[in-house]
């Protein structure tokens, strides 16, 4: 015999305080975002000019695409980012893809061949991550770190650590074109964001991917082929790295060493994005907001004449803060 | 007529532990088939083999006359077999509706039809359980019982033909259990085959048409509970006479060792005062959320009190952390052994020694010889079913893991033991062993606080019983003054008049 009780409202008090804590963290994130924008608007000359705002959005396309890739990996391998998976090869992969595209253009292959090969390179690196994490069961932090080095090494081998200039009609359209007053890069960000919001939040693929990341055993018990979804997440991230590489080349008119340094901002954006979600999980919308936030932060620093070296430090601090805050919120 | 499920000669080993040996399970459609056995008898294992979570070493599995090779979770669901696992297998970050419709999402073109998903979730929860639960609520915000209900609703939403429920009622209250049983009977009438696994023998007798009894990884009999009765089933499970269920000792109760005076934790419990004596087993019970668990946590330094005082050996104490409580000779056996009790990746021996390393250490080194002697003695005393002390705890069954937790605290020689639901989800045989241990501790002059929601064990095992209701201590009874029915009435807040009429 067991004691009876009401199940409809157990520990309602604790639930309320928990919900309150979560709500205050989310509100705090929005207020901090708004506050910093306001501060820059008031103090940094030219911050609010349409040209400047558009520049930030354009710059955000590149960071955003890569952060989306990281978000997808987070969603599929552990919405609890500390214990779950990660893709450290994201930035190095984009660098490798850029090198592949630039070298193929230099050697005279057309876009019709160069673009598919570039995208396949990205997906191949993603596949490699999948093999390391799913098939070989290496912890993602180490597995993708190794793959990152492979990608970085291949990039150096291809470019011999030099700048490989690229100029094609396509890259010109991406860099300078516009449609309805909005530049191509901004369009890219809008279209890809919308597509990914649909896939991740309104399509069953996304729901199942989040289930795999949220509780692997539960997803498996529900009959989801979890390994396939994790492979898919890494390959999708690789594809995004491939697409991004073409945007990078378009902006810089060349393949340039150093793309791998984007890893920190990518991580910062994907992690910061979790604060904007009700469930404290990585979402496309949250990552987009976080990307813009980081973009505006860097831009504001520039306009205020603060050394850009500070930006990396701020991004690192953001990662620490976000991870601390979200894990605190989850513990309660 | 072909059987809905026909499992023959199933064998499964985990490392050195043999979980199943040539086990057979036959279930017909239109019946509710009980599966019982002591902890470690292989109930969960045989179910996980059917679910495709574990691959069987040998044996055949047929579902509705169709022989299955390697089983995958998706494949078995496609055969119409649905599982409600003992572990709450739900995604904590998903909503109620998402959990119910995962892999069966209502669609609107290329979109998930969220509105339809929410509507149907609310409808199903209401229809089957009469429960008004927000389909948008997050799983991590739900209570244990609510999560269990979501799991069952998920299977029902998927039109299961064969339903396997592993300890479905463990976290449910009476009303929900009754609702569940009504649902199961309706599903049975619809021709479903239902496999029902439970430790609660009364439930087995109430709901099951046929029962398969497992012991030590093998089926030892198929019986009709209404013919043979609970007693015989329990004997088949344990090879033990049921009259030994609640061993009583002759209590030699000494002076007070731990006292609470007007102990208060805001919004949780108020003005709780009691004395705990040497050699005493003091029962504490209350409804879910009554504050009884928090009382134990306060005594152990997990929660800081807002008022009143705790007196240990005639001196007021205030523990701010469990470490302080442990160093003052207070031990706690936590309820959730996986979360708090055992390091599953360590060996049996290492776990048992964890809390008592001071005693087996000398000059900074663990004295492996004395550790091993200590550990081996406890393993044999508690009857922990393990090949040796080097076996990893994760390879043991749930009941044996619980015994390891108990052994860990026994070995540390405390003066006060706080036991939080030590027998929950533990089979009859292991329960008796835990009761014997409690008795032994009390006889040695230790003081025990025994928190349980199993009112029968509380009334049988305790020298005194405290009842907490909505944060207040509303009743204190000596052994034999109250039976479990009356205790239930008190704990659920019945008025004095209602109590008298019992």
Question: What does this entry look like structurally?
Answer:
The complex is a heterodimer of chains A (332) and B (502). Chain A is an all-alpha fold and 332 residues long. Chain A has a domain at 48-259. Chain A has 13 helices and four strands. Chain A has a two-stranded antiparallel sheet. Chain A has a two-stranded antiparallel ribbon with strand order 2-3. In chain A, strand 2 (178-179) and strand 3 (182-183) form a beta hairpin. In chain A, helix 1 (12-43) runs parallel beside helix 12 and helix 11 packs across helix 12. Chain A is globular. Chain B is α/β, with parallel strands linked by helices. Chain B folds into three domains: 5-241, 3-Layer(aba) Sandwich (Rossmann fold), CATH 3.40.50; 254-329 and 414-502, P-loop containing nucleotide triphosphate hydrolases (Rossmann fold); 337-413, no CATH class. In chain B, the strands form six sheets. Chain B has a six-stranded mixed beta sheet with strand order 6-9-10-3-11-12, with helices on both faces. In chain B, strands 18-21-22-15-23-24 form a six-stranded mixed beta sheet, sandwiched between helices. Chain B has a four-stranded antiparallel beta sheet with strand order 2-1-4-5, with helices on one face. The longest helix of chain B has 16 residues, at 114-129. The termini of chain B are far apart. Chains A and B meet through helix 1, helix 8 and helix 9 of A and helix 2, strand 8, helix 5, helix 6 and helix 18 of B.
């Amino acid at each position: 015999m067991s004691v009876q009780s009401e199940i409809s409202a157990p520990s309602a008090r604790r639930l309320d305080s928990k919900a309150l804590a979560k709500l205050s963290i989310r509100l705090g994130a929005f207020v901090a975002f708004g506050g910093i924008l306001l501060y820059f608007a008031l103090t940094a000359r030219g911050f609010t000019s349409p040209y400047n705002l558009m520049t930030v959005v354009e710059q955000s396309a590149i960071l955003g695409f890569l952060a989306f890739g990281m978000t997808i990996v987070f969603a599929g391998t552990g919405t609890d980012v500390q214990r779950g998976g990660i893709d450290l090869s994201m930035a190095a992969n984009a660098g490798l893809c850029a090198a592949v595209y630039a070298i193929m253009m230099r050697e005279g292959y057309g876009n019709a061949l160069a673009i598919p090969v570039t995208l396949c390179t990205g997906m191949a690196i993603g596949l490699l991550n999948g093999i390391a994490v799913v098939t070989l069961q290496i912890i993602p932090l180490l597995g993708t770190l190794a793959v990152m080095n492979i990608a970085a090494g291949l990039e150096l081998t291809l470019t011999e650590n030099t700048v490989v200039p690229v100029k094609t009609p396509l890259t010109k359209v991406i860099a300078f074109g516009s449609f309805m007053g909005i530049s191509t890069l901004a369009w890219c960000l809008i279209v890809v964001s919308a597509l990914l919001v649909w896939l991740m939040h309104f399509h069953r693929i996304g729901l199942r991917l989040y289930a795999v990341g949220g509780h692997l055993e539960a997803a498996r018990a529900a009959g989801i082929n979890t390994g396939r979804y994790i492979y898919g997440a890494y390959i999708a991230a690789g594809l995004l790295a491939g697409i991004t590489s073409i945007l990078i080349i378009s902006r810089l008119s060349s393949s340039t060493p150093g793309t791998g340094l984007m890893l920190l901002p990518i991580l910062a954006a994907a992690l910061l994005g979790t604060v904007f979600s009700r469930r404290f999980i990585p979402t496309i919308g949250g990552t987009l907001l976080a990307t813009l936030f980081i973009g505006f932060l860097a831009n504001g620093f520039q306009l205020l004449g603060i050394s850009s070296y500070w930006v990396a430090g701020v991004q690192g601090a953001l990662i620490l803060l976000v991870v601390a805050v979200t894990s605190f919120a989850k513990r309660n | 007529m072909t059987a809905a499920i026909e499992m023959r000669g199933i064998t499964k080993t985990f490392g050195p532990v043999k979980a199943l040996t040539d086990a057979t399970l036959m279930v017909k459609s239109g019946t509710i088939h009980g599966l019982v056995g002591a902890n470690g008898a292989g109930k969960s294992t045989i179910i996980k083999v059917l679910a495709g979570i574990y691959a069987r070493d040998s044996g055949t599995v047929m579902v509705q006359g169709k022989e299955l090779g390697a089983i995958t979770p998706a494949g078995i669901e496609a055969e119409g077999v649905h599982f409600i696992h003992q572990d709450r297998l739900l995604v904590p970050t998903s909503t109620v509706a998402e959990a119910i419709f995962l892999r069966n999402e209502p669609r609107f073109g290329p979109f998930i039809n969220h509105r339809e998903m929410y509507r149907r979730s609310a409808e199903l929860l209401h229809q089957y359980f009469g429960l008004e639960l927000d389909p948008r609520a997050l799983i991590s915000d739900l209570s244990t019982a609510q999560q269990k209900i979501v799991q069952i609703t998920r299977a029902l939403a998927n039109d299961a033909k064969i339903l396997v429920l592993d300890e479905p009622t463990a976290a449910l209250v009476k009303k929900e259990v009754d609702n569940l049983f009504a649902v199961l009977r309706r599903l049975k009438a619809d021709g479903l085959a239902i496999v029902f696994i439970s430790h609660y023998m009364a439930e087995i007798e109430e709901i099951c048409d046929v029962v398969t009894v497992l012991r030590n990884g093998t089926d030892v009999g198929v019986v009709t509970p209404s013919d043979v009765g609970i007693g015989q089933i329990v004997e088949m499970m344990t090879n033990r006479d049921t009259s030994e269920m609640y061993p009583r000792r002759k209590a030699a109760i000494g002076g007070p060792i731990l006292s609470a005076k007007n102990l208060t934790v805001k919004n949780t419990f108020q003005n709780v005062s009691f004395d705990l004596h040497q050699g005493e087993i003091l029962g504490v019970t209350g409804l879910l959320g009554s504050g009884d668990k928090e009382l134990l946590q306060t005594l152990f330094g997990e929660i800081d009190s807002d008022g009143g005082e705790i007196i240990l050996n005639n001196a007021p104490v205030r523990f701010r952390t469990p470490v302080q409580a442990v160093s003052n000779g207070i031990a706690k056996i936590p309820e959730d052994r996986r979360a708090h009790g055992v390091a599953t990746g360590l060996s049996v021996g290492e776990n048992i020694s964890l809390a008592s390393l001071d005693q087996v250490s000398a000059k900074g080194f663990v004295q492996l010889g004395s550790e091993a002697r200590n550990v081996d003695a406890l393993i044999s005393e508690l009857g922990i079913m393990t090949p040796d002390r080097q076996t990893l705890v994760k390879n043991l069954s749930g009941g044996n893991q619980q015994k390891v937790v108990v052994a860990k605290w026994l070995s540390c020689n405390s003066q006060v033991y706080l036991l939080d639901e030590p027998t929950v989800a533990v089979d009859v045989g292991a329960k008796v062993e835990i009761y014997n241990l409690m008795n032994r501790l009390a006889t040695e002059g230790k003081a025990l606080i025994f928190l349980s929601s199993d009112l029968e064990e509380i009334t049988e095992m305790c020298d005194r019983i405290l009842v907490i209701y909505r944060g207040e201590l509303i009743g204190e009874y000596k052994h034999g003054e109250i039976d479990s029915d009356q205790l239930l009435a008190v704990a659920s807040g019945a008025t004095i008049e209602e109590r008298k009429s019992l």
